Amino acid sequence: MSTFANSDLALAFLISCWAKATLLLACAWLLAFALHERSSAAQRHHLWASAILASLALPFFALLLPTWRSTTLGSAATLWIPARANTTTSGSEAIPSVITAASGSAIFNKLAVAALLAWALGFSFVLLRLLAGLARLAWMSVHSKPLFDDSWMSTVLEISKFHRIDRSVRLLESRSTLAMPLTWGIFRPVLVLPSIAEHWPEDLRRIVLSHELAHIARQDWFLQICAELARATYWFHPLAWLAAARLRQESERASDDAVLLSGIAPTHYASQLLDLARTLENSGRAWSTALAIARPTNLERRFAAMLNPSLNRRCLSFKAKFLIPLFAAGILVPLATLRLPAQTLSGKTSGTIHDPSGTGVANATIIMSNHEAKTIDMTSTDREGNFTFKPLPAGNYELQILKPGFETYRLSQIALDAGRDFSRTFTLEVGAITEHVMVVPENAAKPVPVETTSGKPSRLSIGGNIQAAKIITKVQPVYPDSAKSAGVSGIVILHAVVGLNGKPLSLRVMNSQVDPDLARSAVEAVSRWRYSPTLLNGEPIEVDTTVMVNFSLEP
Predict the structure, then answer these.
(1) Which of 157, 168, 280, 345 is the most buried (most CB within 10 A)?
(2) ∠ CA(522), CA(528), CA(533), 5° rounding?
(3) What is the CATH number of the domain that holds 479?
(4) In what order do the strands lie in the sheet with 349-354?
(5) What is the chain's Cα-based Rg?
(6) Which residues, in sequence order, are CB contacts of 163 under 8 Å at separation 6+?
C-alpha cells in the first residue's frame, strides 16, 4: 500500500509541507527585509531563488530522507485529525484524547477528499497557465527567423565574456516590428528581438543585450519556471505568490544593475528603457514565462532604483553564492526529516470480535493505547461484531477489548506501520464469577438464598449477550473447632467450574499454604452451593468461579 493510499495520508502530507514551506519562505522574507538596505538586488534574488528551490524540493526530501519525529510539534497534527474529547469507561477510568470512528469520521473523510480536490484543481489551473506560457514561447520561436548579423553577434560574444556565459546564445528575429525583446531557455538560451532591431543604434543594442544576457548568466528563466512550479504546488499559500513575484522583481533589478555596471549612464538607460516600453508591444502578461526587458508592471520602481546612486549594485560575491544555498539547505534538511506524531498515519485498523460460540459480539469497547505518544483511541463494534478505526499515527499500541460478562482481552504489542492496514479476529472468554464469604465462629451453617451483585442484562437477538449466573443456594462454611481452639485464621481461595446444571465442578484449593481444616470446611460448604446456569445467547455454558472464604476469629 503506497504512502498516499488514502485521503488522510495525502492531506497530512500536504499540510505538513505547507507548514514547513511557511517557515522556509518566512525566513527568506525576513532576511530579505533585514538586508534590503545593505544587500544588492543580485544577493536578494539569490536568496529568494534558494528559498523557492528549497520549498520545491521539500516534498521530495520529505519522502526520501529518514524520519525524525518531534513530540514538541505534536499539537500541529490536530489540523488533520478529528477533534478529541474526554470520556469515561465503564470502570469510571478517565480516557483522554478519544477518537471515535463514528459519523464524525465519515464527515472528516469527505472534508479531506474535498480539500485534496480543491488543491488538485488549483494546482491544475496554475500549471495550465504555465504550460500556456511555454506554448506561446514555442510558437514565437517557431515563427521567428535566426539573426546572424555580424555586429549583433560580436556584441553578444563581448557581453557574454563579461558575464562569463559559456553557452551559445541564439538570436531570433520576430516577424513583428513591435515585439518586446524576450529571453528564455536553459541549455541553449534564446533571445527574441523585434524585426526593427537591425536599425537600432549601437548603444541601444548594447543596453538590450546587456540586460538580457544578465538574465541568462544567472539562469533566471530556469529559476522563474521553478518559481511557477512552486506557486502551483503551494497555490493556496500567499508566501509562495509573494516569493515568485519578488524573484521576478529582483531579477529585473539585478539585470538593471548589470547594465549600469557595464558603463551605461543611469539617465540614459532609464530613457532608453522608457522608449522601449512606450513603442513596443507589452508582452508582460501575468502568465508569461519569458523575461522581458521593459515589463511595465514594476517599471517605476526600477527607474527609482537605477537613478538612486546610494544603492548597492555589486554582483553576487563568491562567498554569498555558496553561503545562501547552504543556509537554505540547513533549514530544508531538518524540516524535511521532521514528522509530526500524527503525520505518518497507518492504514485502516479493523477487526471482528466473537464470543466462544462464534457469534459476533455487539457493543464491545475497543481501546488502542499508544503509551509513547500518550494517546488513547476508542471505538465500538456493530451488531455483527465488526469495528474500524480511522488511520492512526504509526507506532506501537496496546489493544484492550471490554464487554460486560467477558474477560478483558489485552494484546500488549501491536505495531501499526505507515500506510498499512491492520485486521484481526478476536475471541472473548466468558468472565469468571467471584464470591467473597466471611466466616466467624458464632455463625452456623445453613442454606441461605443469596442474590449475586452482578446485574442481569436484557436478552437481545444479537451475539455477545451474557446472562450472568447467580447463586440459588449458598451454604455457609463452619469454623472448625480445632482451628478455633488453636487460634488459626486465614483465607481459603477455591476455584471451580460452574457446570451446565449449576453445580460446582472440579473444586480445588488454590493456596496450599492454608490450614487443612479451614480448607476442608470451605470445600464441604462450597460443594453444596447451587447456581443458576450462565447463559450465552440463551444457551447454558460452563464458567469459571473463584470463591474466597475468609475465616476470621474476630466478628
Answers:
(1) 345
(2) 115
(3) 3.30.2420.10
(4) 386-389, 349-354, 422-427
(5) 40
(6) 213, 214, 216, 217, 258
Hey, what amino acid is at 171? L
Cβ density class 96-117: b for 16+ within 10 Å, e for less? ebbbbbeeebeebbeebeebbe
Question: How many residues are listed for the chain in this entry?
Answer: 555
| H-state helical runs in 35-149 | 41-64, 103-142
Residue 479 near residue 441, CB atoms below 8 Å: yes
Cα gap 180→277, rounded to integer Å: 8
Tell me how far apart the alpha carbons of residues 97 and 377 are, in angstroms, rounded to a whole number.
7
pLDDT tens for 20-62 read 999 999 999 999 888 877 889 999 999 999 999 999 999 998 8
Task: Pick the last residue of a domain from 370, 398, 427.
Answer: 427
Which of 224-238, 333-347, 381-395 bottoms out in mean pLDDT, i.e. has the lowest?
333-347
- Count of the separate structural domains present in the chain: 2
- pTM comes to 0.60
Contacts of 460 (CB under 8 A, 6+ apart): 362
Say yes or no: 444 and 399 in one domain: no
- CA-nearest of 313, 280, 324 to 299 is 280
Q: Is 354 contained in some domain?
A: yes
The whole domain housing 390 covers: 349-427
Q: Given this model, what pLDDT does residue 243 score?
A: 94
